Amino acid sequence: MSDRAPRGARAGALDTARAELVAYGRRMAGEGLAFGTAGNLSVRVGDVVAITPSGMPYDMVAPEDVCIVDLDGAKRAGRGAVSSEWPMHRAVYATTDAAAVVHTHSPEVVALSTSCAELPAVHYAIVGLGGPVRVAGYTRFGSDRLAEQASAALAGRTAAILQNHGAVTYGTTLAEAYERAGLLEWLAGTYRRARQHGVPRILTTDELDDVRAEMRRLRYGGRVS
Ligand SMILES: [Zn+2]
C-alpha cells in the first residue's frame, strides 16, 4: 500500500476530491450537521472512493488523512482509518448513480427519526430529494444491515433517514450531496415547527408531480428553477 496516489488525470481528480472532502467536513461540523467526529463524506473517482477518516475531528483532517479505498473496501492510500460507515457508502455507490455520499447526524433529522416513519411533503422543495423521505429502521452503526436498510430506503430518493442515528444523502457532486443534507435538515425542522401549530397540511402526489413538471419546464426554458 502506498500513500501516494497513482499518477495522471485520476491522481489530479483524487487530490481534488480529498481537498473537497476536507473542506466539506469542516463545513459539516461548523454548520452543526454533525457533532465532534460524527458523520462522514465520500467521493467516487472511477473505481475508487475517497472517504473521510474515522475518529478525527474535522478541523484536524488534512487531505493526506482522507482514505482512498477500492470498491471492495481495500485501502490503497491515506493516513487515517477508513470510516466505520464504509459499508453504507459502498452500498449507495452500488445501488445508485451517486458520485458523492454525505452521512450526517443533523439534530432535526435525528429528532424526527425517533417518532416518524417518514418525513412527509410539508414543503414542495422535498421534490429535490425525490419526494417524502423514508426512515430506515434502527440498526447498529457500521453494520452491513444498516447499509442494506439505508440503500433500500433510498429507492427513488436521494436522501434517507436512519432511525435514532442520522441521514444519508447522495448526489452527482459533493456539493449537491451536501446541499441535499442541508435541505433535509431544513425540511425536518420546518415539519417540527408546523406540527407545533396543529396537524400540518401535506402536499399530495398530484401536487408534487405538478411541481416536478414546472421545474422541468423552467429548466428546458433555460431558466433556473
Ligand atoms: Zn453515523
Q: How would you explain this protein's 3D organization?
A:
The chain has 225 residues and is an alpha+beta fold. The chain has a single domain, classed as Class II aldolase/adducin N-terminal domain (L-fuculose-1-phosphate Aldolase, 3-Layer(aba) Sandwich), CATH 3.40.225. Helix content is 40%, strand content 17%. A hairpin with a 4-residue loop joins strand 3 and strand 4. It starts with 8 loop residues before the first helix and ends in a 5-residue tail after the last helix. The site of zinc ion has 7 residues, from loops.
Number of helices: 6
CATH fold name, please?
Answer: L-fuculose-1-phosphate Aldolase
Poorly predicted runs of 5 or more residues: none
Tell me about the largest β-sheet.
9 strands, mixed
- Overall strand count: 9
What distance lies between the first and last C-alpha atoms, to the nearest angstrom?
Answer: 46 Å
Tell me what portion of residues adopts beta-strand conformation. Answer: 15-25%
The CATH homologous superfamily is called Class II aldolase/adducin N-terminal domain
Taken together, the total number of domains comes to 1
Could you tell me the mean pLDDT? 94
CATH class: Alpha Beta
* Share of residues in helices: 25-40%
Distinct small molecules bound, one entry per kind: zinc ion
Shape descriptor reads globular
Radius of gyration, CA atoms, in whole angstroms? 18 Å
Q: In what order do the strands lie side by side in the largest sheet?
A: 4-3-2-1-5-9-8-7-6
